[in-house]
Design a protein that fits this description.
The complex is a heterodimer of chains A (about 140) and B (about 375). Chain A has six helices and four strands; from the N terminus they run βαβααββααα. Chain A is mainly alpha-helical. Classes of the chains: A mainly alpha (about 140), B mainly alpha (about 375). At the A-B interface, strand 1, strand 2 and helix 2 of A face strand 1 and helix 4 of B.
């Protein structure tokens, strides 16, 4: 998995690392069961503090996407083929999506453009064949 | 003419030539320690500074080598080393001039304006790490073993006083004075093996514009460089073995023959120079699949390597408190350097200095 961050960018580094890993899981580049580098190794590779990577991994663990153990390290737990998520998570996500789409509408982006942007984003995700049609907007 | 002073002359010529050629093997996006976006890597100021630096350092190398040759026949073994220090200081000055001039243009023309500055990594470096080529360490270990065997056989017949080191002084016969060269072999071999093991655990020196291809190039660079260093280690140990054989009176060389122990060292250094010249820093001179297979050609949208000049003091010393790395790719030439802001790096440096210092102190205290 290729991972790039903007250390001097406006988004906190731990959030960027978390976002890139989520994108890699959705894109099929980091499927369920695959391993990630240890927090120390990733911190060295990105030249950031060890606690920053720890925070990203902990966030992903809380979201149920990552399993952390002393024995097997950091392992991806869910991916597009893992089945439907927990209903509570879906509710939270819908609320966040509402805000994100509202930002576009508030800025004057027309509805077809918003839909096209959503479609383009989804096109890069690795949905399993049986829920591909459902994944299309 | 002692072997030691001859080795110093070789060092003056070798390091002078290396300093002169260093810009050619340095990553194009870090000319003279200044991070530049890829599209400015061939800027006029960089080409001009590179030419000026090469002319100046070539002249310095030629002058210093001539001076070293002239002074080394006068018995003052330290004079050639002084010449080496003066040569490196002069080259350092040329480097700083080039660095200052390129930095001035970079800031004046705002080369980084509008660039996404990113730090990239390929996690396959950790999930599928490169293996240290242990088998290539065997020749060095075999040479050390051979030195020990010859030493044990020769020890009973050695005279009461032995030449110490490269023949500058003499010391009473003892296990330590007779086997000092073996201790030197073990130290050099362990030191470089240890440093390379740290390098294998360090981050690859990769480009943000195409991390996958540059990681593959770095793997090839590390493999080639490690093998060349392990061969150099075997040849350094061989040089020390030949010096030991002279000291243990297995053979007596005079005239040009006294240069024999320097020969393996020179061959090893030449081999390392050829390998690093072919690979370039981090594999930057290696032909490679770019863009990555199945991928698109990288562009400015992928971002440029982060402008990290502020972490490089004098363009050579890496000091970044937020970076947990112990060693990182060198800024100039080919190799690696310490992150001096990391206490672990100082622990390693202290170990490198403390071991030989401790051995000398123990030898002096016990009179061995």
């Amino acid at each position: 998995m290729l991972l790039s961050i903007e250390p001097d960018g406006p988004v906190p580094i731990y959030q960027q690392i978390r976002d890139r890993i989520v994108e890699a899981i959705a894109g099929g580049r980091q499927p369920a069961g695959s391993g990630l580098p240890s927090t120390r190794q990733l911190a060295v590779d990105l030249g950031v503090n060890f606690h920053t990577v720890n925070k990203s991994y902990d966030l992903l663990r809380q979201e149920g996407l990552l399993r952390l153990s002393r024995k097997s390290g950091a392992v991806v737990q869910r991916d597009p083929g893992s089945g439907p998520p927990h209903p509570d998570w879906s509710r939270d996500w819908a609320a966040r999506l509402q805000t994100l789409l509202a930002e576009a509408a508030a800025q004057g982006l027309p509805a077809p453009d918003i839909l096209r942007a959503c479609q383009a984003a989804i096109a890069g995700f690795a949905f399993p064949a049986d829920n591909q049609a459902e994944g299309q907007p | 003419m002692s072997t030691g002073s001859l080795a110093a002359v070789v060092m003056v010529a070798f390091f002078g030539a290396m300093m002169c050629l260093a810009p050619a093997v340095t990553r194009p996006t870090v000319p003279f320690g200044v991070r530049v976006p890829p599209e400015h890597a061939r800027a006029t100021v960089i080409r001009r500074e590179r030419h000026t630096y090469q002319y100046r350092t070539a002249a310095i190398c030629a002058c210093c080598t001539v001076i070293a040759v002239l002074v080394h026949g006068h018995g003052s073994w330290w004079l050639a080393r002084l010449v080496l220090l003066a040569e490196l200081a002069a080259d350092f000055g040329c480097y700083q001039i080039a660095r200052r001039n390129i930095t001035a243009v970079k800031h004046a023309e705002r080369w980084y304006a509008g660039h996404r500055q990113v730090m990239a990594t390929d996690t396959s470096w950790r999930t599928d790490p490169p293996r240290f080529p242990v088998r290539w360490l065997m020749p060095a270990l075999a040479v050390i073993a051979a030195t020990v065997i010859v030493g044990v056989i020769r020890y009973p017949d050695l005279p009461a006083r032995l030449a110490a080191g490269f023949g500058h002084r003499s010391a009473p016969k003892s296990v330590v004075s007779a086997f000092a060269i073996v201790i030197g072999q073990v130290y050099v071999t362990l030191l470089w093996t240890g440093l390379m093991l740290i390098v294998y655990r360090s981050r690859p020196d990769i480009e943000a514009a195409d991390p996958a291809a540059s990681t593959r190039r770095y793997r090839r660079f590390l493999a080639a460089c490690t093998r060349a260093i392990l061969i150099l280690l075997a040849l350094v140990d061989l040089s020390l073995l030949l010096a030991a054989l002279g000291e243990w009176q297995v053979y007596r060389a005079s005239g040009p023959g006294s240069a024999l122990p320097v020969l393996p060292l020179a061959v090893g250094l030449l081999l390392l120079a050829v390998v690093t010249f072919r690979t370039g820093q981090g594999g930057s001179r290696l032909p490679g699949p770019s863009p990555s297979p199945g991928g698109r050609r990288p562009g400015p949208a992928d971002g440029a390597d982060r402008d990290d000049d502020r972490f490089w003091k004098a363009g050579l010393i890496y000091l970044n408190r937020d970076d947990p790395a112990i060693m990182v790719g060198a800024r100039f030439g080919v190799g690696w350097t310490f992150n001096v802001a990391n206490p672990m790096a100082w622990l390693v440096i202290a170990g490198i200095i403390a071991v030989p210092a401790g051995l000398i102190a123990i030898a002096a205290a016990t009179g061995l």
